[in-house]
Amino acid sequence: MRVVFMGTPEFAIPSLRVLADHGLDVVGVVTAPDRPSGRGQQLTPSPVKEYALQRGIPVLQPEKLKDPAFLEAFAALRPDLAVVVAFRMLPEVVWAMPTRGTLNLHAALLPDYRGAAPLNWAVINGETKTGATTFFIDQQIDTGGILLKTEVEIPHDWSAGDLHDVMMERGAELVLETVLAIQAGTVQPQPQDEGAFLHPAPKIFKEDCRIDWQRPAADLYNFVRGLSPYPTAWTTLGGKVLKIFKVTEGEQTIEGKPGTLFLSGKNELWVQCGDGSLRIDSLQLEGKKRMETAAFLLGHREELAYVE
Is the Cα torsion angle 212, 215, 221, 222 positive or negative in sign? Predict the structure, then answer.
């Protein structure tokens, strides 16, 4: 089969790598255009583009997926199958072009956690298990026929970043297994169970990440790790944004309203929640670098009162 791979971030690289390493005929890669990045705003290629060029795979970078020039170049690749991992929504004129369909890797056990941020929401919701699904793209978002699934356990101390790193490797294994099954004709798409209980997984915006200290400590523990390291839970301290990357549950008793800060010993910083408290372990004050709490306290101990 002639395979075209479509993806942009680091998450997609293992899937592209495993296809190329297995000797499949990856005839092209479609990824995002180079974007300005860093202080100098230098044009920077996507991680997938960099990897594709290292492997000598032709790259297409359309601004618009309905651009006639792109559609002509895509058709010229004569794709039998397109594989989509962490890319944008495709118009039908693109996903319907490969003769054997366009498969997508979704980082959840569909139909649960449809949406743009399934990894984050699974951790925020305190799930102990999630997974990855391959399916054929159709007219609606994340609703196409399911091909294969794999399950992934979520330990209680994992952040969304930990889950991301494991999922991109497990997802790559599933992508290869699916492509080989399609090639061999041993897999058929199965309709999704629309009657199943579904958690939403919408895109997360900055305001969604603000910590409400009135909530129970157990919920906020999951909230912080589900947004770490990105897009990051935050609060304010003295009028400045304070990002919080890691917290620990504990039994510390604090007198005061939710958001009250309490120092325990030289290096421990605790915060009162609506029910219980959390120890703040890793944080970043606006204008500063991310640091462990012990280092933060060296220069900010006198500023502590409460966060809001």
Answer: negative
